[in-house]
């Protein structure tokens, strides 16, 4: 089973450093580079398209770095750390963690942080006049790691906003596609708030029966209606007293209840069904939806007065396809969870992680979790490949990596490589929502080079069309 290091310096780096400053490498046990980020390419002065074809020993030989703790970690099968100097004379603190299976190194994860002595010293000795540096600014990154993963800049920014929001009692609306983790973020805000000792009551408004929704939310007195419990019942809003009420899919709340919820928020009081007594209630409200509430108010399907009462702090969670940096860490987290649940020691290989990275994830984090569970369960059987092939969606991509379709092809190597490059560039463009600058940056090439390649692919697919266009252009 992959082993997770509990090395103190590694935890300090991963919790307190800004992800934009991190240099990240993933290598195999021989030091061959498998994955890296753009910051790594810039820091050591090697273009991305070349970097992923090199070995750590070659980087030392070429003078890009003076030493490699990745190689030491692979040799000693333990976490190694130390200072590394680049060709530009910049100093990095490197921490290399081997992922082991029965003491065999599967691959190594290396984080490097620029000028660590200055950064860590500043963090460990905060100025009393700016108490937010250690207590507030970085607390949003030192999360409960069993529940939340934030490697991407987008998610780290969201967590900083969420932490700031947690220090207030203002209403929060979480926007995002289904499966992006809105309830997880709501729980984080609750845990970081002064109400963390109170209850966290989560309600999916879409599942509330319209006939019973009011009784569920507000409770009722004994004898309030036929079928009511003899002793009466406390409502879910009242149960959140002193804590946080999370209304998921709030756009589905019936309009009659929207008016009553507004009254609760304005007056801080509720009245149970069948009662004439108002009860003072103190709670914090977090709402979530995958719909545009502003547009719904214009269409008359959501009360505008409730919208403007809630519309204080808005947080938009990006879909997983827009933060691919989180995919690997989320997959490893789910892998640990399911290995523990099923008492297994399954590993994710590089081909599977690559397939994960390239997939669009329409179901977001929820879909990723399910696919990792399928992968783990498949290893219970003697024929895991057959199990995965019987699955639909992402599981088929795992069982057959993208390059597999080219195996056995009869085309020349040059043509096959062109086709593979075209498919890979198209997949990156798709992940980047066809933003050329972003795609070029991820591919490690100039934007002009990317445009030329796309044009070349188009000509290769439709040579006659382009030939006729060229003739027309050349006609007098």
UniProtKB/TrEMBL annotation:
Q: Which UniProt keywords apply?
A: ATP-binding, DNA-binding, Nucleotide-binding, Transcription, Transcription regulation
* The keyword Iron is annotated on this UniProt entry: no
Entries under Gene3D superfamilies matching the protein: 1.10.8.60, Homeodomain-like, P-loop containing nucleotide triphosphate hydrolases
Q: Which residues form a coiled coil?
A: none
Q: Name one Pfam family in it.
A: Sigma54_activat
Source species, domain of life: Bacteria
InterPro entries given in the database record? AAA+_ATPase, AAA_lid_NorR, Homeodomain-like_sf, HTH_Fis, P-loop_NTPase, Sigma_54_int, Sigma_54_int_dom_ATP-bd_1, Sigma_54_int_dom_ATP-bd_2
Domain Sigma-54 factor interaction as annotated: residue spans: 148-377
This protein's name: Anaerobic nitric oxide reductase transcription regulator NorR
Gene name, Swiss-Prot/TrEMBL:
norR_33
